[in-house]
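task queued by scheduler; priority normal; single chain, no ligands, no partner chains; default sampling; output format set to structure tokens
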Amino acid sequence: MNTLRIALADGMTIARRDALKIRRAPDLLGGVIILPIVFVLLFAYVFGSMIDLPGMSYREYMIPGIFVQTIVTSAQITGYTLTMDLRKGIFDRFRTLPMAPSAVLTGQTVSDALMNVTSIATMALVGLAVGWRVHSAPHEAVLGFLLLLLFAYAFSWVTAAVALALRRPEVYNNVVTVVSMPMVFLSNAFVDSARLPGPLKAVAEWNPVSTIIQAVRELFGNTASAMPAPGAWPLRHAVTTSLLWSVLLLVVFVPLATRLYKRAVSR
């Protein structure tokens, strides 16, 4: 019990350190907060005027997609920060300190979770300003936000593992951009996946990003009976599948990232 308490305290210390570092890096804050605001305004006032959805406003349809796009983008900060610390030799300094080895990854992911709270709150306010509304019960809306934060936390461990495997900031940025952009845009974030052609439709319907977006839409009440019902199993059981995806990512990538971290600091 004492060992666990020390590990948690060390993790919170690293989380405070990483939070201060992000606050002093306007470029990281811009990518997480300003860019999604631009997407909201762009899709709401440019593309939104040309896209008709049966029974609902396109602005209410797209905001959950912006939420998920934001958390996928902000989760990349975990990996980027780790690669920069590797380059600067920060991990070597941590090895000389009497701290729990798990503190570095735990602190970094917790720091990014706090960043996600800020970015999601910002997106919610911007969404309300452009016409987005929650039509569900308060407890369902709270569950929707918690589900977003859980998926964001799980995805940050994915980016941590990728960063520790690649080790170089430039390579990491290129890889995560190539992977994350199709994940978001080849989904139901901005268009109904049922409208996509055959192979792309199948990929979009089984995309975990589509599942979390569909779950959030249902929990926020941003759906319409006039819209065609989802055909794929993950979208028909979106909330349950999103929880399963989040747990699976944590089960796989927490130990993997921890193993890669130990390998990185042992070199």
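post-processing summary
- DSSP finds eleven helices and no strands in the chain.
- The two ends are 31 Å apart (CA to CA).
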